Structure formats: structure tokens, C-alpha cells
Amino acid sequence: MDEPSASAACAPDAPSPAALRAQQQRTVWWLFAPPALLVGLRWVLQWQSDRAPQLPVLPLTPFVATQDVWGLLWPVLWTLLALCASVAGTLLAARRWGWRPVGRVWMVLWVAACVAGTAALLWRHLNVRGVQPLAPVQAQVLGSRILAPSARGPGGTQLVLRIDTLEPLQQVLIDDPQAAQWRPGQRLALQWARGRYSGWFVTGWQAAASPTTSP
């Protein structure tokens, strides 16, 4: 009679059903609450943008010439290497310390990634909404191409511009049917602005009456 009682006293206590349910609820909350916050913030910001006056705020980005195949494949290769390293590191850590602490680490990383995405979304929204207008500037069209609408954007005419006060060539996507008629050498009067935190944005444009032809 004493041996079973002694072994039972030495054995670790099994978690009660209530404790298991509470742990499962915490896990589900940490899995779904952070991405729900990200999606909710995106919906609110989009709703505010739709209610605001529809003024063009188009980002200017440095023009990148044609890239080779390796330049296009490097991001994919780095992603695959990072994924393989993460899987291998997870298996080795689980074999050494067990799955529970490894799962906690991954949960922390998951929450941190969602928080970082939420912060980046809010930062981009405030950066665009707080643009600071600058004096109009002259620009010249060096090239253009038509981009069809897709899941990544509404499409339009992508222009390569030489802006008088900006050293590197810039590119901007303009959703204006008139922009498709512009040829290399066309002069433009740009209204532009600086982002609240960083970046340059086009807020308006006016084509010159008689475009010049580049040599």
C-alpha cells in the first residue's frame, strides 16, 4: 500500500483539464491576435484614405536599369537559404532543449514580426499623409512604358525622369491617360513634396506645350 502512494508522490503532477484549456486559449490568442491587429489597422488606414480628398501622392523611386538574372534570383535564393536554416536550427534546438521552449521562441518571433509589420504600416501611412510641399521643379521624360493593372497596383504609365534638382534618375507610376502620349524629351512641370519622414512624392504635373526631342 505504501509503494503506490510513494510513487504517486514522486511523479510530477499532470496539468488539469482547466489548465490545458487555458494554455490552448493563450496559444490561440497569441497566434491570431497580432495578425488580426495588423489587418484591422490596415482596414482603418484604408478607410481613412478613402474618406480623405483624393490628391495624388505618387512615390518617386530611383531608376534601376535592366538587371541580370542573378540580380533577380538573389532575393529568392536568400529566402530559401533562410528558410532551410530556420528549419535546421529549429530541429537541432528541439532535440537539445525540447519543443516547448523552441515553440515559445517562435511565438515571440511571430509576435515581433506582426508588431514590426504594424509599425511599418503606420509609419508609411503617416509618412504619406504628412508630406511637405516643395517648390515646383522642371523634369524631362527619358522613357516610359505601360503597366497593366494587377494585384500589385492599378497600373498606368511608368515614367523615367531627369529632375533638375535631383541627381539620380527617378521613376514614377502615373495613372493618367495623357501620360501615355508623352515621348522622350517631353518637359514637365512637377509639383512634388517631401515625405514627413523620408522620400519624395509627385503631387501634380503639367506637360509643356511643345515637347523637345532628345538627341
General description of the model:
The model is unreliable at 6-12 and 211-215 (pLDDT under 50). By secondary structure, the protein is an alpha+beta fold. It folds into 2 domains: 12-54 and 98-129, no CATH class; 132-207, OB fold (Dihydrolipoamide Acetyltransferase, E2P) (Beta Barrel), CATH 2.40.50. It has helices spanning 2-10, 17-51, 69-97, 99-129, and strands at residues 58-62, 132-133, 137-147, 156-163, 170-174, 187-194, 200-207. A 6-stranded antiparallel barrel has the order 1-5-4-3-6-7. Keywords: Membrane, Transmembrane, Transmembrane helix. The chain crosses the membrane at residues 28-45, 72-93, 105-123.
Structure at a glance:
This protein is α+β, with helices and mostly antiparallel strands.
